[in-house]
Amino acid sequence: MKFFLVILSTLILVRNVAASECQRQYSSLVFSEKNHEIIFEKRADEIIFPASLTKVMTLYLTFEALANHHLKLTDKLTVSGSAADVSKVNKVNTLNLKEGEKISVEDAIKGTAIKSFNESAVLLAEAVAGSEIYFAQMMNRKAEELNMTHTNFRNASGLHDVGQYTTSYDLARLVDSLEKKFPQYRKYFAAKEFVFRGVKYKTHNHVLLEYKGADGFKTGYTEASGYNLIASAKRENNRVKSILIGCESYKKRDEYTKSLLDLAFKEIDRRRNNIIITLK
User: Is 131 a catalytic residue?
Assistant: First the structure.
């Protein structure tokens, strides 16, 4: 996959978003979906911890398993001891599933994409590969296939591990490939809520809830990584994506992401004098 760098944006338009910029050292990348023109980037090739953005790869491999008829959306997954233990790591953000309970593949997908539940990600990994260890190996093989050359996965959920890392560029390759290969499943990243056992769970993605034209994608956080967000928005025939890693708070992450998306749409509207250099 090729990306393109819009020189004018990085040299001039960066000051338009400086007021809302994250204060921590962060990584960001904003690009158009249509032709992969990079509208803004900052440290996009630096190694970062993905946190729950890892779950995008978990769902990618789940969608492959559905396409290969290894899984069906209606299949029931039995909660393992490992998944039940993972559910206790974050006592607030959890389905509180107990070992031996059941959940459908589709509900596990929704829990992973919409609310970022760790136990649902582990259950999907186990369903696809038999164990999370084998699943991590699958994740790394897929990363290599997608030319994510600065990425390594160690688990399905995104719980912090110093050996689990990526870059904004690599995440862009992952999201781009997922949307092209599995357009029918994009709806899970665009959903604002889901219901499980009569309880309604609302997305962590406030940009999806608040920004005009927003239509996805995925949040992430650990103490080591900071607050992360892949966002997608569409206006008229233009869709742009923003990747932001390492903000100091979810409020600052959301504010800055909105500024970056605003920047992208303004730049698309006045693209006529841009100088474009092809990067491979």
Answer: no
